Amino acid sequence: MELKQEEEVAEPVSPTGQYFNSSVLSISVLGVLESQVPIDDSPTLSLLQDVFLPVNPRFSSIMVRDKHGIKQWKRVKVNLKDHINVPVFQTTTGDQFYDQQFNDYLTKISLSQLPQSRPLWEIHVIKYPTRAAAGHVVFKLHHALGDGFSIMGALLSCLQRADDPSLPLTFPLLRNDLSLNAEGGKGIWNAFSGFFNTVSDFGWSLMKSSFAEDDRTPIRSGDEGVEFRPIDIFTITFCLDQIKLIKSNLHVTINDVITGIIFFGTRLYMQETGQDHSTKSNSTALVLLNTRNISGYRSVEEMVKPDPNTKWGNQFGFIHVSIPELMRAADEIYPTKFVFEAQEIIKRKKNSAAVFLTGKLLETLRKYRGPEATARHIRNTLKNSSMTISNMVGPVEQMALANHPCSGIYFMVVGVPQSLTITMVSYMGKLRVAVGTEKGHIDPNKFKSCVQNSFDMILKAAANSPSQPN
């Protein structure tokens, strides 16, 4: 779409927004709210008009190109009815729950493309009960609109505390996972190790993004066009108190525990498939990290201000992390090895500037070769790795949407050229892990069982062996 009048432009599309909405990538985020009570959708139009649209001009804008061919956000009049979907499921006598129909519907909307002729979001109101909820509200937002931090902020602007709407939602303390080692620069060794880690990590990341593909395994088909294939989406719930118990006993961080559980569960799944060689395969996780210097979620008003630490948009980096090998005999006795290995990897990555150099590389590619070439580089980065892991922090208190208490929330990134995507969000003392798997390549029930077994084994081992071995 060509822009004729430059004064109609709301704002330029960010570089990352251009990458995520290009000829080679179209990535969206599904945000799922589980309602504790049957859904009354009569307030939908007023909620969107009065609360959701004012959050950010991008929700009322489309992407256009100016006379120089640069993508811009252009404000348009929004026909809200075009963005609201209330599906009708086929029912049979005696149906009480609609889990399969709901799962099939998530698969369907994960594959559909958001029309470029209107603002890049839509909402799906599912009134049918499942075993998890009395109804669901699913927001689908294009990743070009913003990253997980921005999108979470937008959704939270539509929600209130269920116990007392006059009180603000509160969140666990957030720390910037990308901060460098606090001792870096204070000693020759720290400076040297930081330099070595940066060169090593950046060089490896560059190879993985260019030509070094992961092995084809039970979690990676490696097929071209995998992003256009149907996916299964399912969730696993862990108690945060139990994760904190593991953290305390092993003297690690919560991120170390979660990463270790996911990695161990993934290798257990590879073993369960009967392909023993895959337990030692070259498999890499792409871990997405928020690059904001933040200590908690900001209000939407603060996020749209010109503050580099809180502003709206896509502000994240990624690191490549090798999934540790499964040494069967040892790991059956000592499953917490994966937690300690995750701790060592994350600690080393913190003492590295590879994430920032990767950002500079993308900016250089965009400047000299254009956003489409940069998008192809990002697609190769995703395609050549085995899985993506991202996480967000949700509120401590229960939320409500238009007086509908939310019993749970989770999100999923779709349109990614990978067979396995994992996202996590905390809410009301629980950690909700959502898993997206390539249908027909990964067995969702077996993978879920392996991750749950991983958690149980690590929890038991941490309770019995609270100290790290030599």
TrEMBL record:
<keyword id="KW-0808">Transferase</keyword>
<dbReference type="Pfam" id="PF06974">
    <property type="entry name" value="WS_DGAT_C"/>
</dbReference>
<keyword id="KW-0012">Acyltransferase</keyword>
<dbReference type="GO" id="GO:0019432">
    <property type="term" value="P:triglyceride biosynthetic process"/>
</dbReference>
<comment type="pathway">
    <text>Glycerolipid metabolism; triacylglycerol biosynthesis.</text>
</comment>
<dbReference type="InterPro" id="IPR009721">
    <property type="entry name" value="O-acyltransferase_WSD1_C"/>
</dbReference>
<dbReference type="InterPro" id="IPR045034">
    <property type="entry name" value="O-acyltransferase_WSD1-like"/>
</dbReference>
<feature type="domain" description="O-acyltransferase WSD1-like N-terminal">
    <location>
        <begin position="64"/>
        <end position="172"/>
    </location>
</feature>
<dbReference type="InterPro" id="IPR004255">
    <property type="entry name" value="O-acyltransferase_WSD1_N"/>
</dbReference>
<dbReference type="Pfam" id="PF03007">
    <property type="entry name" value="WS_DGAT_cat"/>
</dbReference>
<dbReference type="GO" id="GO:0004144">
    <property type="term" value="F:diacylglycerol O-acyltransferase activity"/>
</dbReference>
<keyword id="KW-0256">Endoplasmic reticulum</keyword>
<dbReference type="GO" id="GO:0005789">
    <property type="term" value="C:endoplasmic reticulum membrane"/>
</dbReference>
<comment type="pathway">
    <text>Lipid metabolism.</text>
</comment>
<feature type="domain" description="O-acyltransferase WSD1 C-terminal">
    <location>
        <begin position="312"/>
        <end position="458"/>
    </location>
</feature>
<dbReference type="GO" id="GO:0047196">
    <property type="term" value="F:long-chain-alcohol O-fatty-acyltransferase activity"/>
</dbReference>
<dbReference type="GO" id="GO:0005886">
    <property type="term" value="C:plasma membrane"/>
</dbReference>
<comment type="similarity">
    <text>In the N-terminal section; belongs to the long-chain O-acyltransferase family.</text>
</comment>
<protein>
    <recommendedName>
        <fullName>Diacylglycerol O-acyltransferase</fullName>
    </recommendedName>
</protein>
